[in-house]
Design a protein that fits this description.
The complex is a heterodimer of chains A (184) and B (522). By secondary structure, chain A is mostly helical. Chain B has 522 residues and is of the alpha/beta class. Chain B has a single domain, classed as FAD/NAD(P)-binding domain (3-Layer(bba) Sandwich). The two termini of chain B are 27 Å apart. Classes of the chains: A mainly alpha (184), B alpha/beta (522). At the A-B interface, helix 7 and helix 8 of A face helix 6, strand 4, helix 9 and helix 10 of B.
Chain lengths: 184, 522
């Protein structure tokens, strides 16, 4: 969880333009891997209110009610990083968020969905949609939340860790399956 | 300095190091023939394979620009990535999922079996099945294929248990953990599978066959291989007689180099192989090399591929275990009463969490989209792998409006689906949905057509030189010392995943090339 607890804190030494903060929700999967932590994501290009609007946008695109804000903050961080690298991207995001308006982040979900449907064909929306899917589901927070265990080579694979532990259906006859390797 | 001199005219130059190129290099060097392999990608190893899905994708994938057109689903869902194959030593055998079925005898007689299909450019293979079968037997031993030669099958995973139970409810008979080039026990100096589920990121156990750590190092051990990595072939040149005599390429520093050659074998995957032939146009061959028929790039096939996901009340944890180790083969038959010709396999499949929403699901967002992800743990998956119809206008062409980093026109991939393709996909999706529903799925999700991975037939073998690019040995009809050595040479796509057939054809082609070289015919 190094990625989370540092959350770019070293960037604080530089000038930051915005900041997103939160607490890990007690009892959430994230709490198991980052107990008792406050988190903060520094933005280097976008403002705090732009960050908050983007976070709300990411939650509307991929709404997982019990998934911690910290997971969505990583999406905002990824967008901020793209904006920092390319002035055109920054402009597109700034203008796209301006078009959504100041009230977007705080508005109810059905209104946010309607607002996004109106801009769905835009490069801005499509960029944020793709970035949300790329960044949201690839973080350790998401792995924990969705129960995905990720790479297993470092742990000896899933051979001893449940690759065939499903018990709610009949076992496959030996002729159509295969033997476990020696020692398994 | 290269180990084989640039001016050495005795070498065979192979472009690409995957299933075709890597196998061919091993076979030729073992026979004492000097070989230069030009590989555009870098060299990874089981130690260097990334286990972060996004990073692994960037590490292994051919990401140079391409364009696409046509009505296929890929154009809509993946506009910048029409195909998904590798750019690395070992080629696409690094990320393949190692399913190794054979073609059926009747699939080799596609035109005769299916009859005249309007809008399709079917042909029969120039190779009798029995002859190909002899090389299948060799290839299966080489790869250590499960359920062949006494090699046991892989053990059933959770994901396969769901597939198996559903298939049995529908009365399917030919259901098992597949013919796989993944070791079910230690074989050929490689370890057995530990069910990591990271086949696509490169098998860190080396349990999955890849030319990267089998054929290539063995070819190197002969002392006859000069493998040049990060070297991208840009042009094949010929002399006054029309024989090819050298390959121009860019090396890792971007410098142009020219390697003389006695024989040139193109094995750059189904997109780059025809592109290179087209890029090599000259005053003598204004349509590109080996293209007097106009067939280079045409008849491009990619097989009918599509995901089906079943969501259950209980956990499946489909990511645990060999990704593709499971198959239903009952629909591999030609039965036009189903509404289409040709057959399809239903194969086990899953995607890691980061990749799943990007590749496995149709475009979407919002509550419904997210609700599928919420069920990731309880999800089983499989895919259709079926024969698509070759069409003259489904083709690889040069797009002169878009250039690669060397300033050369990129490949455009054009696919308009044949009605047969659509009917087959619909049938398969229905059958797979019924399988999952029969064992209690609360929801079935049909995935999009993913970027094409089985790129074939774009420089096909044919009896009639007007219908294809190469003869029964992959030797081009027009130029005797120019060979097609990858999936581009397949005359039709069949319903079998292509790699085993590519390897079998490479083994067969190697015998032919060495024989022809000895007899001074090439």
């Amino acid at each position: 969880m190094d990625e989370l607890v540092t959350l770019n804190r070293r960037e604080l030494l530089k000038t930051t333009t915005g900041l997103l903060t939160g607490w890990v929700v007690a009892g959430s999967p994230l709490a198991l891997i980052a107990p008792g932590r406050a988190w903060a994501v520094d933005l280097t290009t976008l403002t705090s209110s732009e960050g908050a609007a983007l976070m709300s946008m990411a939650r509307t695109i991929a709404p997982h009610d019990k998934l911690d804000d910290a997971a969505y903050a990583l999406v905002v961080q990824a967008v901020d990083s793209d904006a920092a690298k390319d002035a055109n991207t920054h402009k597109m995001i700034r203008e796209g968020l301006a078009e959504l308006g100041r009230g977007f982040a705080a508005s109810p979900e059905n209104e946010r969905v309607e607002a996004l449907k109106k801009i769905e064909p835009s490069a801005f929306f499509q960029t944020i949609r793709l970035k949300t899917l790329q960044a949201l589901y690839s973080s350790p927070i998401a792995y924990a939340y969705f129960g995905y265990e990720g790479e297993a080579f470092s742990k000896g694979g899933y051979l001893f860790r449940g690759f065939n532990d499903l018990r709610w259906l009949p076992e496959v006859p030996a002729a159509e399956s295969g033997p476990l390797p020696d020692g398994a | 300095m290269p180990r084989i001199e640039f001016q050495d005219e005795s070498a065979v130059v192979i472009i690409g190091s995957g299933a075709g190129g890597g196998t061919l290099a091993h076979e030729l060097t073992t026979r004492g023939i000097k070989v230069v392999v030009l590989e555009a990608g870098k060299r990874q190893s089981t130690a260097s394979f990334s286990q972060v899905p996004g990073a692994a994708f960037l590490q292994l994938t051919w990401l140079d620009p391409r364009t696409q057109s046509g009505d296929w689903g890929v154009a809509k869902n993946f506009p910048t990535l029409p195909v998904w194959h590798c750019k690395t030593v070992g080629g696409t055998t690094v990320h393949w999922t190692a399913a190794t079925p054979r073609f059926e005898p009747w699939e080799l007689r596609a035109r005769s079996t299916y009859g005249r299909i309007p809008g399709a450019s079917l042909i029969d293979w120039p190779i009798p099945y029995d002859e190909l079968k002899a090389y299948y037997l060799l290839a299966e031993r080489r790869l250590g294929v499960t359920r062949r030669n006494g090699v046991p099958g892989l053990p059933a995973s959770n994901n396969f248990k769901v597939m198996y139970a559903g298939a049995k409810k529908l009365g399917y008979q030919r259901v098992h953990t597949g013919h796989m080039a993944i070791n079910s026990r230690p074989y050929d100096g490689r370890a057995s599978c530990i069910q990591q589920g990271f086949c696509v990121q490169g098998c860190k156990m080396g349990a999955k066959w890849s030319t990267l750590y089998t054929e290539i190092p063995r070819a190197e051990a002969t002392g006859n291989l000069d493998l040049r990595i990060e070297c991208t072939a840009t042009r094949i040149e010929h002399g006054g007689t029309g024989r090819v005599n050298s390959v121009v390429y860019r090396d890792a520093e971007g410098r142009e180099q020219r390697q003389k050659a006695r024989v040139v074998c193109v094995a750059g995957n189904g997109i780059e192989t025809p592109r290179l032939l087209l890029l090599s146009e000259s005053s003598k061959f204004p349509q590109g090399l080996a293209n007097s028929s106009g067939q280079v790039g045409r008849n491009y096939c990619h097989q009918i591929i599509g995901f089906v996901w079943g969501i259950f009340d209980k956990p499946v944890s489909s990511w645990r275990g060999a990704t593709l180790a499971g198959v239903v083969e009952d629909e591999v038959r030609n039965d036009p009463s189903r509404g289409f010709v040709g057959g399809y396999r239903m194969e086990l499949c899953t995607l890691d969490l980061p990749t799943f929403p990007l590749v496995g699901l149709p475009y979407g967002w919002g509550r419904d989209f997210a609700s599928i992800l919420e069920n990731y743990r309880n999800m089983a998956g499989m895919l259709i792998n079926g024969e698509d119809m070759p069409r003259a206008e489904n083709r690889i062409t040069l797009n002169h409006d878009v250039k690669d980093s060397f300033g050369l026109p990129v490949a455009n991939v054009h696919v308009d689906e044949h009605p047969n393709d659509q009917a087959m996909r619909k049938h398969a999706q229905t059958q797979m949905s019924r399988m999952y529903e029969a064992v209690g799925a609360k929801r079935v999700v049909l995935g999009p057509v993913p970027p094409a991975t089985h790129n074939t037939c774009s420089a096909r073998m044919s009896v009639d030189p007007r219908e294809g690019v190469a003869n029964a040995w992959g030797q081009t009809h027009d130029i005797k010392n120019l060979f097609i050595s990858d999936g581009s040479a397949l005359p039709t796509a069949g319903s079998a995943n292509p790699t085993l057939t590519i390897v079998a054809l490479a083994l067969r082609q190697a015998e032919y090339i060495s024989r022809e070289m000895k007899a001074n015919r090439v």
